[in-house]
Each structure stands twice: as C-alpha cells, then as structure tokens.
C-alpha cells in the first residue's frame, strides 16, 4: 500500500497511520502544519485558510485560539468591528456604546 496525502483541513504528522481533523481553535495551513488560530479570527474544526468568513464577527472579540463557541461579546462602553481581538474603548467625546 502506498502513501496517501492528507486532505486540507486535516493534520498528519510524519509517519502517521491515520489523519486527524484540524482541531477547533487551530489553523492547518498545510496537512503537516497546525498553529493556534490567530487573534481576530474564528477557527472551527477543519479550518485550513483564513478569509473574510473567518474574521471575528462585528460586536464580538476573538482572542487567539478562538472558535465559534468561545467568541466574547463586546462589553458596554467598547466597540468591536469585524476582526477584533480586543474590544476598543469608546473614549472620544460624543461616543457611547
């Protein structure tokens, strides 16, 4: 039996006999490389690329390693545009949240 390449969204270490889905909160850019999901993005299972759909949602903040079940709602007095890792305080005159 020959060697089979791992699919995008999965992870295979050298010498693997099975494939693993890329874990929640991690990003598998290549089948042999997995990293913690970058700040400002959501990485659910089998995430293999970052795009506009993986940006943290408006009104929420996403620290590194975030998946759709662990995003944090933006607290009162702050702003969270899409892709925010940390809420921005509303500190200019004439702003509120």
List the helices and strands and how they pair.
Elements: E1 10-11, E2 20-21, E3 26-30, E4 33-36, E5 60-61, E6 72-73, E7 78-79, E8 88-89
Primary descriptors:
about 100 residues, mainly beta, rod-shaped
The number of helices is 0
Strand content: 15-25%
Structural class: mainly beta
Helix content: under 10%
Question: Could you give a quick summary of the protein structure above?
Answer:
This protein is mostly beta strands. 0% of the residues lie in helices and 22% in strands. A hairpin with an 8-residue loop joins β1 and β2 (20-21).
Written overview of the protein:
This protein is an all-beta fold. The protein has no helices and eight strands. Strand 7 (78-79) and strand 8 form a beta hairpin. It is rod-shaped.
């Amino acid at each position: 039996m020959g060697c089979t390449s791992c699919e995008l969204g999965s992870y295979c270490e050298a010498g693997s006999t099975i494939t693993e889905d890329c874990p929640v909160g991690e990003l598998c850019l290549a089948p042999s490389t997995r990293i913690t999901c970058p700040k400002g993005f959501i990485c659910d299972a089998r995430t293999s690329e970052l795009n506009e759909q993986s940006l943290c949602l408006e009104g929420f903040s996403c620290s590194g390693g975030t998946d759709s079940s662990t995003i944090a709602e933006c607290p009162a007095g702050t702003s969270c545009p899409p892709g925010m890792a940390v809420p921005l305080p509303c500190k200019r005159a004439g702003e509120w949240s």
